Amino acid sequence: MGSELHELKRYINVDALLRYVEERRHEDGGYCFVSLLAETNINDTYHAVKIYDLLGLDVPNKDETVEFLYNSIKPQQATVALAMAVEGLAILGAKDLAKEKLGLLFEKYNPIEGKFAVGLGGSEEFGASTPLEATYWVLKALSALDYELDDEVKNSIKEFINGFKKREGYGVKQPTTTMTYHALSSLSRLGFEVQKTNLFKECEVYGGFTEVPLSLPPYLEPTFYAIFGLELIGDAPTYIRAHINFIRALQNSNGGFRRSLEMGISNFQNSYRALKSLVKLLKSDWEVK
């Protein structure tokens, strides 16, 4: 990652971002994007781990963070949070500890019994999560552990995902960038063919992507999902340089990234999305426009 880290420093203030993350690490090994005054949580700790991993850096006091994630996997946690904690442990090299908690995860996510996220909880974004989002996170966690599902389970999940099919993509009432990526990524992880879609291109503007076609403004989360959705279907964004500049402009003075040009405080998941998207845009062989 050394050369990529150097390249990123040409576009954003990586040192400020790392200070932003480091200053929000608590004594228990967890993180909270607000400050040391608020309680640590799985979401922020997971994304802190992902940021360090993406940059090829060691997580400070890793053993404490491993302990925090392991002890955070409790029955009252939402399915998405449990999956994030399991994947976080795997990234930190604690796969054996993560596997110990799979029983609890499968109590809340059991496709054969029609359980696609018991005690759904909050979304990674805002408001209520959807079972499709939970499916995406559970499959990411299992993939990190090289855990193979049997064909009956895979087919049950595929049938469930296809229940969200809406015209060019996937969604609850209409196709959205985020849910379409969640669906296509999940189908790909299950080993099923991923079909082409025009939805991502229909949501592309000159600098960012929107959640649905013919809408403004662009936000970071659909930009992130669209970039990797296009990669998944073998396509590419049209305005590479404009997307890079859009993401760069989202970095706040504290080093973190917000979700839109208009407003927003920094948080860890958007900071990770910004980094991951920039790395992809800068290192890909996509034609720059």
From TrEMBL:
KW Repeat (keyword) present: yes
Listed Pfam families: Prenyltrans
Keyword Repeat carried by entry: yes
GO molecular function, one term: catalytic activity
Alphabetical UniProt keywords: Repeat
Domain of life the protein comes from: Archaea
Domain Prenyltransferase alpha-alpha toroid: residue ranges: 12-72, 133-196, 203-278
Protein name: Prenyltransferase alpha-alpha toroid domain-containing protein
